[in-house]
Design brief:
Elements lengths: L10 H6 L4 H6 L2 H17 L7 H4 L2 H15 L8 E2 L3 E3 L10 H11 L7 E2 L4 E2 L7 H8 L3 E5 L2 H13 L3 E5 L5 E3 L2 E2 H7 L3 E5 L7 H11 L3 E5 L15 H11 L3 E6 L17 H6 L4 E5 L10 E5 L1 H9 L1 H5 L4 H13 L3 H7 L1 H6 L3 H15 L5 E13 L8 E10 L4 H9 L5 E2 L1 E3 L2 E4 L9 H12 L12
Parallel strand pairs: 1-16, 2-14, 6-9, 6-10, 10-11, 11-12
Antiparallel strand pairs: 3-4, 5-13, 7-8, 12-13, 14-15, 15-18, 17-18
The structure holds pyridoxal-5'-phosphate.
The site of pyridoxal-5'-phosphate (PLP) has 15 residues, from helix 8 and strand 11.
Length: about 475
């Protein structure tokens, strides 16, 4: 018997065949060649398995395979997904979705030129660092403000500016790892400041700081908000007020890494108190850094607020240039901050705040819509059950957001299979598996995405597409 591989046509023979005409007119030739080579390699590897002599020579079959290959190759690497996990600040899914106003501002600035570094009043060079300053000082009560790439960058810049070549005193209970390889001791080392750790993991007193100041003559005192874990039991923490008082006595600035940057009122969100930038500055912190895309609900950015002497020095630090924020981010951050001028508007329009404070009854109603559309599916058990969402993004680790979820089991699929099929939909849907069932939480699904969610479910379960009224399309 001859090796079926000997029947495989050559690249040139196939490209000259009329069945490749349409592909060659829609794609550049080198891309078609690359795709064809890859398809031919696969056929050779499988030694033409499962293909008869006619099929192995059929140009139309190869054209079909190449067309599929090119379509898959055209799917962008970074794409929109539907987050049905109920984790609001899902770091793996891009943290904060942005408010409509922010998206519009970003779109506008991205598509044209802007006054990024141009003073429109005077017709001369301006500074990109001017743009969010008024809003940030108004919203936090700070003297001055600076925006860089993310909070990690803001912390490096602050440490480098305030204490390069000098010690920075911090409690051992606050030497946290935030995730994504961000550890306070390592960041400190890279910033050029020297770590002076005091106290023990569970207890640090003001005296520990005072002793370290006498002994090490540091450049600054640092407090880090333990965003993603809680110390409970036999604990003692040096308060910001104690650090501020010690700093005043010794002429040392106090830097506070706040992490999350909550600007809204936590009570209005139904959340426990969390230190906020304004309160930290009022308590006497000289410089406060926080993130733009955690509880603030804006684009990825790092914000520094505080005394103009320090913020000005940071702006002039050459390192600032390496950490600088881009125009699209600035536009999105400015539009998001603007919403905070009216706290009610912020709660209504900033998606992160809306999702955190979602009404459980409304979540239940949205679950029922999805469940109603799926109930006719043979063999599938569809339930609407109480379920909790999470804040995520390394904030409020112990808070469970009360709500409802759609619980799916059966339908001829194991939960892992269903979840995988949902991920392969377009747009992909990410849910969670718990107790042998798939759970879908509407809290993090934008109402505009409900139809895409139902389409993904129909695709995954192999049933007809159902629209939101439950009518087959
Ligand atoms: C999240 C966090 C950071 C890092 O913020 P990014 O904006 O992600 O760089 C820094 N410090 C604390 C305490 C945090 O919680």
């Amino acid at each position: 018997m001859t090796d079926p591989r000997r029947l495989i046509p050559s690249v040139d023979t196939l490209l000259d065949d009329p069945s490749f005409g349409a592909l060659l007119s829609s794609y550049p030739r080198p891309r078609v060649v690359k795709a064809l080579r890859s398809v031919l390699d696969a056929v050779r590897r499988e030694a033409g398995e499962g293909m008869g002599a006619a099929e192995i020579q059929d140009p139309a079959r190869y054209a079909g395979a190449v067309s599929g290959w090119l379509a898959r190759d055209d799917v962008p690497s970074l794409r929109r997904v539907v987050n049905a996990t109920g984790v609001v600040l899902h770091t793996n899914l891009g943290r904060a979705p942005l408010a409509e106003a922010a998206r519009r501002a970003m779109h506008d600035v991205a598509g044209g030129y802007s006054n990024l570094e141009f003073d429109l009043d005077r017709g001369e060079r301006g500074s990109r660092y001017d743009h969010c300053v008024d809003l940030l000082t108004e919203l936090t009560g700070a003297e001055d403000a600076l925006v860089v790439n993310n909070a990690a960058a803001a912390l490096v810049l602050a440490l480098n500016t305030m204490a390069q070549g000098r010690g920075v005193v911090v409690s051992r209970g606050e030497l946290v790892e935030i995730g994504g390889g961000f550890r306070i001791p390592e960041i400190m080392e890279r910033s050029g400041a020297r770590l002076v750790e005091v106290g023990s993991t569970n207890r640090t007193r003001a005296d520990d700081f005072a002793l370290a100041v006498e002994e090490h003559h540091p450049g600054a005192l640092l407090k880090v908000h333990r965003s993603n874990f809680r110390l409970v039991g036999f604990t003692e923490e040096t308060t910001l007020a104690e650090l501020v008082s010690l700093g005043r006595d010794h002429g040392l600035p106090v830097l506070y890494d706040l992490g999350s940057g909550l600007l809204a009122d936590p009570a209005a969100l139904g959340l426990p108190a969390e230190p906020r930038p304004r309160e930290a500055l009022e308590a006497g912190a000289d410089v406060v850094v926080f993130s733009g895309d955690k509880l603030l609900g804006g684009p990825q950015a790092g914000v520094v607020v505080g005394r103009s002497e320090w913020v000005g020095r940071m702006r002039r630090n050459p390192l600032c240039r390496a950490l600088r924020v881009d125009k699209v981010t600035l536009a999105g951050l400015e539009a998001t901050l603007r919403l905070y001028r009216d706290p009610e508007r912020a709660l209504a329009e900033i998606p992160v705040l809306r999702m955190l404070s979602a009404d459980p009854d409304e979540l239940r109603r949205r679950c029922e819509v999805v469940a109603g559309a799926l109930r006719p599916t043979p063999g599938l058990t569809v339930e609407v059950v109480p379920g909790t969402g999470a804040v995520g993004g390394g904030t409020y680790p112990e808070v469970e957001l009360p709500g409802w979820v759609v619980r799916l089991a059966g339908g001829g699929l194991r939960p892992a299979e269903l979840i995988e099929r949902l991920r392969s939909a377009d747009p992909p849907v990410v849910g969670r598996v718990e107790d042998d069932a798939v759970l879908l939480d509407p809290r993090t699904v934008h109402p505009d995405e409900e139809e895409a969610l139902l389409r993904a479910l129909a695709h995954a379960l192999g049933v007809g597409v159902v629209d939101l009224d439950g009518e087959p399309e």
